[in-house]
Every structure is written in C-alpha cells, then in structure tokens.
Amino acid sequence: MTHSTWAAFRAAEPEFAGSVQHRFEQYRHHVLATLRKDGSPRLTGLEVNFRFGELWLGMMLGSRKAQDLQRDPRFALHANPGADDSMDGGDVRISGRAIEVTEPAEKARFTKDVKPPEPYHLFRVELTEVVRTSVEGDELVVRHWGPGGPVRTRRRR
C-alpha cells in the first residue's frame, strides 16, 4: 500500500488538504480507531497537531492506543462532528500508518513547540486515504484522495 506525508498531500492537493486541516482544527478532540492485539477495533479520543508540514498524534506514555499503534501502525482518524447537527465543513476521515518518533532531536523540536505533558508517545502520520463527505445543496458529495492520484469526487442525490 502506498503512503504519503501530510506535506506531500498538501503539495499535491492544497485546496482539499486545507479544507481537511481546517475541519480538524475546528475542534480539539477527535476519534482515533486502532487495532487491539486480537484484531478488534478500539476507539479512543485524541488531539491532533499539524506542525512542521506533518500531522502528529501525541498520547500518554503506555496508553492502550499507543500500544496498539506500536504493535500495528494502521489507524483511522475521524474529525469531531461538532456541537450540533449542522456538520459544518463536512465529515472528515483520515486513514494511514502512525510511525512512532523516538529520535530525541525530532521529539524535542515537537516538545519545544507544543509543550505536551511529559512523558508521552509521539507518532507521525503517513496517509493512505483522506475522505471528506458533505452536503452541497441537495447532493451528498464524497471527495476521496489516496497517494499517487488526484482527488476523486462522487455526487449522489
């Protein structure tokens, strides 16, 4: 499966990437899906961070979601749908692989800028899929991007 950094996605599809990032930045908490040891899904809350051209996931040291990602880096991340039923900005989901950052200088750079509670796990995201679903007029509009291709749009009444 092909992967992409956030920076590469943003360079390839700046308007779409900007709308996805804006949707995530509207709210602080989102939902992360990881895989448990037995392969079943685990859903947990999470904050995301866009810094240095990358998408980052930080979490408490030894947390179950961190252990899941260390064992199997595949994940899905769903943006907070918001405080009401308007779904302003659409429904956004990112899938990919979470690569743990253990290099001290790279982690220190993030820590200096973000100042998370320490100690913590830090993961850099490699994208495999980005999807935004919204309602435009009387149509359901699904935009989908995967590495190596353009954004595909499907419309449905």
Report what the structure shows.
The chain is an alpha+beta fold and 157 residues long. Helix content is 24%, strand content 43%. The chain has four helices and nine strands, in the order ααββββαββαβββ. Strands 1, 2, 3, 4, 5, 6, 7, 8 and 9 form a nine-stranded antiparallel β-sheet that branches. The protein is globular, with a radius of gyration of 16 Å.
Mean pLDDT: 94
Structural class: alpha+beta
What is the count of β-strands?
9
Give the helix level as a range of percent: 10-25%
Shape: globular
N-to-C span: 32 Å
Order of helices and strands: HHEEEEHEEHEEE
Largest sheet: 9 strands, antiparallel
Computed over alpha carbons, the radius of gyration is 16 Å
How large a portion of the residues is in β-strands, by DSSP E?
Answer: 35-45%
Unreliable segments (pLDDT under 50, ≥5 consecutive)?
none
How many helices does DSSP assign?
4
Structure in a nutshell:
Helices cover 24% and strands 43% of the residues.
List the SSEs and their pairings:
Layout: H1 6-12, H2 14-25, E1 30-35, E2 41-46, E3 48-51, E4 54-60, H3 64-71, E5 74-78, E6 91-100, H4 104-114, E7 120-136, E8 139-145, E9 152-156
Antiparallel strand pairs: 1-2, 1-5, 3-4, 4-7, 5-6, 6-7, 7-8, 8-9
Helix pairs in contact: 1-2
